[in-house]
Amino acid sequence: MRDDMSTETRSLYDSLEDRILARDQVGASEAYYGLVRAGRPLPEVIGEAVRIHAPLTHVPYHERIDQGFVNFVNNDHCLLSARATTHLASLLPQRLAGLPMAQTVWYIPTGLDIWNQKINKAPGHYARSGKPLDGPPVKPVVHWPDQEPERIEGSVDEKLDRWLDLVHRGHVLEAYRIFLGIMEEPAHRKEALAQLVFAGLIDLQDRVYLNRSYTTGHKSFRARATVELGNFVGWDDAHHVIYAGALDIGVGPRWYSTYEMACNCITHFIERQKISAIPYGGSTTKEAEILRNTVPLSKDEATAFLDIVLHRYEPDHQEALSRLLLAGKGPRQILDVLQIGAAQVLLETQDTLNFSIPQHCYEYLNTLGWFYDNFEHPQRLKLLYVAASYLNRNAWHARQTGDGREAQPWRASGADTLAPAQLVERIVTAIAALDGPQALGWTRAYLESGADKTPLIEQLALVATRVGNDPHNQELGQILLEDYAKNRSFDRDRLLLACVQHTAVHRKYGDFLEASRRYGAAMGLAELQ
Length: 529
Hints:
With 529 residues, this protein is mainly α. Helices cover 59% and strands 2% of the residues.
């Protein structure tokens, strides 16, 4: 906690910490309401919330083998929820801007010590066995203690290579200490953060069908949250953000085979060289040239490319991507097209329990787009092959599990007689009722009307924020709206439709509007009650 806080402010944060550690959602929320009434700034509130949960949202390993059966150990969403908060707050009217953080605070008590939740020793969001706890709940455990910075010799590139090598080997604490040491050098901070996100983006499992031990891009989501929240709270006050985010990059399991394929695609398709057993390294002159390209795909080119990625097997999509790159098409522009494809898979997901791969695939493509827009990492072209491969697996997984189809279209009868505000009201009502087909039908009617999309976007951000008990609701709503603002490919309205589909159809837990109602009652906001 910062030394310059008043006694009254310290007392408010002490109450927040006490209730979070007691896993008391209602009490933590009431403490947050007090902070809002006191006018405490959002960067400070987020910084303190992260300080409280950072030691308690790590796991020893993101996988267990229990009596010979491989089981997944989930990833933290407290940090990811806070990152989404910083964006959603700016999309909402000022009077509602405190709601996204209210959802984050509501979730944090349920997100502590996932490891013990998974083995039925602690309550929370991931304790879903349906069985009583095995004895009294254990207090949240610090599985990886915080560390002091370690300063090593060498250039910044040599230091970052050393750090990545330790991450690769799973030397979690040594890697974390060295990363802290590099982050103490402000002149090299951006390079360190770029490498942090890169290390997350290359860590992606090589199969999804009949696989529940998901390494679905979460390391990159956590790394992005580290970067954005560090920027948001200020790096002088961001140690707990780094602890919450950067340490986990080295926690296993780690999967690099898809990225290895991407490296070899550069050698085989771009450099047109035979792959051999000699060691390779770095990036090529040809890669750098291609990264400077900005030519967009035509609608026909984009449609043909997505047809290959979504419906054919490898190496077809690697070859198609390579042809586009060698023809001068821009990598970032190709990524816009892949986002449209990932949105289509979301639209074709009807089983409420089947969104895990589609939503994480979309978030990966969003994170990669953000990476392209914020860093000039020399290896980022290779990641385009990773993204295309992930989307291909995602599309096939949908079909292999009985999805991969859009719902029967529901026509919004009489929509042409309604004002835009009335259409938006019907969209929001259908989403809150979890009626995906009606929500999509009204949304299509709104889009076909040609009305200003600003009110629609605001309400989609609000309804995604109102839906609680799982930060995926906020994360996916936020990133789809973010990409709608940035994407320059054909049919970007598909991103808005995917936002509606995910918010309405994705699995909900418990009374999913409770946190929103409580905040509305506490703050006197009738539209939330």
